[in-house]
Amino acid sequence: MTAPLPQAHGVLLLRDVDGSHVAGLLARYGLELRRVADDAPIPGSYWGEPEAGIVGCVVYARGDTPLHSLLHEACHLVVLPPERRRAVHTDATDSVEEEDAVCVLQALLGDAIPGVGRDRILADMDAWGYTFRLGSARAYVERDADAAWAWLQARGLVDGERRLRIPRA
Predict the structure, then answer these.
(1) Which of 53, 80, 135, 147 has its CA 20 to 30 A from that of 36?
(2) How far apart are CA 47 and CA 49, in angstroms?
(3) pLDDT tens profile 39-89
C-alpha cells in the first residue's frame, strides 16, 4: 500500500505529483504543459488563479493549480480537432454535451497518471464544488453519463468498454 499523496485545500495539486508524467500524458494528445511561476497570473484561466488556463495547444498551470482543473482544461483541448485548438483562448466549450464529456474524460486521464487515479480526480471534483444531478462526480460518471460516454466513443477517445484510448507516443 502506498502513502496518500499530499494535498492542500482538500484537493491534489500539480506540485503534489510528478509533473513529467502529466506533461508526457498531455504530449501524447499533442498538448504542451507550461508551468507558470507560483506568484504569476495563469494565462487563459477562465475562473482565475489557481485554475489552469488554455491558449492554443498549451495548458498553463502553477504548482498550486488543482490537478483536476489542469486535466479538465486539457480535456477541452483533447476533444477538439487539432486545427480548432489553435484558435482557443481561455474558453473552449462548444456545448453542454462537450462539457459533460470533458468531466468524464478528466477522470479517465487521472488513471493514466501514476499514483493518482480516477477515484482521486472524482473526489477532488466533489471537494472543489462540481455539481451533478445525482450528487457526486462518481455517480454522474457511473450512472448518469451515457450520452457523454457515447460522445467520447464517437470521437475515438474511449472504446466500447469505456476504456480510455491514449494516442501512442
Answers:
(1) 80
(2) 7
(3) 999 999 998 999 999 999 999 999 999 999 999 999 999 999 888 898 999
Q: Which residues contact 135 (CB under 8 A, 6 or more apart)?
A: none
Whole-angstrom distance, CA of residue 134 vs CA of residue 137:
8
Instruction: Give the C-alpha distances (Å, rounded to integers) separating 131 from 7, 27, 68, 108, 135.
Output: 21, 29, 14, 18, 7
Domain positions in the chain are 14-154
Q: How far is CA 6 from the centre of its chain?
A: 19
First-to-last alpha carbon distance for the chain, in angstroms, is 30
Q: Are 77 and 59 in contact (CB under 8 A)?
A: yes
Helix (H, G, I), strand (E, B) or coil at 55: strand
What is the Cα–Cα distance from 92 to 5, expressed in whole angstroms? 30
Show the CA angle centred on residue 112, arms to residues 124 and 60, nearest 5°.
65
CB atoms within 10 A of CB 89: 12
